[in-house]
Hints:
By secondary structure, this protein is mostly beta strands. The chain has one helix at 42-52, and strands spanning 5-17, 23-38, 56-63, 74-77, 80-90, 100-111. The chain is globular, with a radius of gyration of 16 Å. It starts with a strand and ends in a 6-residue tail after the last strand.
Amino acid sequence: MIRGVTIKLKVRTENGTDEFNQPIYSDSWVDVDNVLIGEPSSNDVVAALNLYGKRLAFTLAIPKGDDHNWVNTEVRFFGRIFRTVGEPVQGIEELIPLSWNKKVQVETYGFESEDQA
């Protein structure tokens, strides 16, 4: 049976507004279980480089039922920090036989420091 790994996802929560009526956010890290990590296709790498000017590092398969925001956020795995690129691609849960129905692409963003782990 195929089983993914647990990764950390940065989640932004709005905590109110400042004196200019702009939202104030706080960031926290949550665990997302059963995520598959794979390499992007060469076509995906070229397309992302042409569209966004970013070099893809991995493609993540997100499990069904996940309702986190995967747009323009950070993820941590393999001792590194990655940033999502573009919009997630999602299929219809009932029509996909496996446990994953969403695909997210990430680029290398930085290294984890000891205090972040």
